[in-house]
């Protein structure tokens, strides 16, 4: 009886090891960080936020002893900084911001901390204007009030690159604003903005809500994709926002870029393996909330470019390899 009591007290005191969430025949202990984990997502109304919240619900069922907190952020660069400095354990990132990772890790004194769990879906460039707007191309944005996304977001980086490809400087050739997607949608609706950039999965809630209340169009940017690929990398792809994604918006040719779920190397390998397993085994559930979740696939998920896979994620992929 005394031995049982001592063991129970020891487990309660440590509170870091659990066996729940494992599957036979292997059921090793999982080491949970004190206080749980934090998922850094993105702006309110964006797909990163929706994905993070859906994953949190999955983990509440799959790993019920793990405390999971979801935090909004200003986007990919902010998320990289949070991972590098230890303020986040999981985070989302667009591939076109991967080049920032080594410098942010060095600045935080934590080289090699940022690792990948999976390539999760492709994000689409969406340049949104009112349907009755005279604006028809990126070059028409000259002198207009344009939101290029929150500071520290992949939207800001992509907007700058696209405007440069169109022969414009985002600091001098437009009346530059830096709002989140939800704020941008609201300000376009009330006439404070002429256009806004957004890079996200389809459909994005904030844009869909705007389109259901105000007729909108998307500007085509396909003519600049080859220049983006030449200057910045082949992860930029020619894509189309399909008709019907947003109310009364026709097919619109654009650019797409992959997005990744990242993890801190500080997370225990066993835990990341189980996080990876939960992500894939519940992809249908996540996709019921976030349609972009439908494209998650183990064959493409390992393609995370310059961000190495977390050892725990590697263990998961090896475990499901045919």
Automatic annotation (TrEMBL):
SUPFAM superfamilies, A to Z: Periplasmic binding protein-like II
InterPro entries, per the entry: TRAP_TAXI (IPR011852)
Its name, as the record gives it, is TAXI family TRAP transporter solute-binding subunit
| One family name in Pfam for this protein | NMT1_3
Source organism = Cryptosporangium minutisporangium
